[in-house]
């Protein structure tokens, strides 16, 4: 559990033709919630489940400062943008210049490739434009800031006048968040005999070729990818691999990342997590949460899958969630490659959500910088639209790869690396997918069913997928069709009877007895219907998540405690949790009278026709924050009969 302070942001809610306001004018809301308090949603949201992420390869996004492009070594820069292994000029000023473009699209958090100072030389003809060959974790890459600007975080700690600080300021002014990409597994390859040269704010502290202090492992390349020891200790593509057993290394890397958090970074994306043992990550995340309790962290376990025990164990026990490669691959097969099984491939992934402790916090995506872009698999914009709508409306936190909204792709060599990282060259706010992302991002902020709710399949064939997201009295119905025009005789929607308007097309649909009869789906058609119920409000909101309890039909989970909000131990007045999947129950619990006080609580199972089953443990104890939002992450303790 993490007891988090209130958000640092309390300014007036941003306004750039707000997507949430546009969506709220379309969808049904309960009478008392006609005007959704978006400021409340932002300031109370310590998690990322309501966010829409946008992943930027900084060097390939936008050159906002032409004077810094050449850098210290002109050989590393290609102004013609023909050499895919060199820098092309994108920088942090370029990101700042395009923040309104992103915000207007509904993006609420940007994930940037690593910003650390990199080796300033070529390796096999390639520069470190991607940011994964770090030289100094306590300095900003000079190519991303103004020429002559001080790159040292230490030396600018008081003034905070770097382009990076300006980016943080401009993001937070717009109520947007920054995800920093970090690398703890390795430093740099062997460039002119300087493999793994590492600096601490300009002072050399480690060298792979002169490693008496054992900062690095020296076991050569991974030979057997099924051997866990090799994967965690041997080298990846010739990169100097850190020795996590070295306390000096651990102290250095943790201190460095804390400096970035202190400058305003809101979340961390962690590279190559499968290549280090889980104990290291447990120590690392624990230190990060102690330093900044509301930081959100997710990791890249390359090609993780819900049937892969090691990646599932990592997601559940490391202290961070992960990128959902299993869903990504299924979407690419079903919609990009037109696999015969179609949507059943996607269903197979969702059916295994119970294996995760936090399936609704997985980061979902359809492509990234390490694989061909989706349109290199299938250039049809309609298929890209289906894939995007799917990740924007299904469980998890959606992440859009830069340029997707402009249909950006280069199919040279099948679109593989490095051709999946072209320069962003269009900024059209009228593309269909730009507008759809905008609308669905607004819907995600308004309808908690999309960010926190359960997911229920309602109709499926290889070509058609209908599902419902549900949380409390909020509902969202989604229908996707990868095939030709068709009619579904009837489909359950869980929506109240009456007329509902599609968020995407504004077409009207009549719901009767909770169903739509003779539902007509156009070729590659999309339907999104939504009803927003009452939002939970209180001086302090506890987001309680309980894992590890298996229930039968008709059984319910509640939380009871020694405070009025939890019924003062009266189980008839206990606070109910919502079913998310076989392994997860969840609730937002408002605290007013008990805010700021120490409480005791435990969970119980209510069963029809028999006595409640209470957890078999001493009561849990927690000091409720005086205001803001708090996370509880608990595991069910096998119960005893009451």
UniProtKB/TrEMBL annotation:
<keyword id="KW-0479">Metal-binding</keyword>
<dbReference type="GO" id="GO:0046872">
    <property type="term" value="F:metal ion binding"/>
</dbReference>
<dbReference type="InterPro" id="IPR002044">
    <property type="entry name" value="CBM20"/>
</dbReference>
<protein>
    <submittedName>
        <fullName>Cyclomaltodextrin glucanotransferase</fullName>
    </submittedName>
</protein>
<dbReference type="Pfam" id="PF00128">
    <property type="entry name" value="Alpha-amylase"/>
</dbReference>
<dbReference type="GO" id="GO:0016740">
    <property type="term" value="F:transferase activity"/>
</dbReference>
<dbReference type="InterPro" id="IPR013783">
    <property type="entry name" value="Ig-like_fold"/>
</dbReference>
<keyword id="KW-0732">Signal</keyword>
<dbReference type="GO" id="GO:2001070">
    <property type="term" value="F:starch binding"/>
</dbReference>
<dbReference type="InterPro" id="IPR013784">
    <property type="entry name" value="Carb-bd-like_fold"/>
</dbReference>
<dbReference type="InterPro" id="IPR013780">
    <property type="entry name" value="Glyco_hydro_b"/>
</dbReference>
<dbReference type="Pfam" id="PF00686">
    <property type="entry name" value="CBM_20"/>
</dbReference>
<dbReference type="InterPro" id="IPR006047">
    <property type="entry name" value="GH13_cat_dom"/>
</dbReference>
<feature type="domain" description="CBM20">
    <location>
        <begin position="534"/>
        <end position="638"/>
    </location>
</feature>
<dbReference type="GO" id="GO:0005975">
    <property type="term" value="P:carbohydrate metabolic process"/>
</dbReference>
<keyword id="KW-0808">Transferase</keyword>
<comment type="similarity">
    <text>Belongs to the glycosyl hydrolase 13 family.</text>
</comment>
<dbReference type="InterPro" id="IPR017853">
    <property type="entry name" value="GH"/>
</dbReference>
<keyword id="KW-0106">Calcium</keyword>
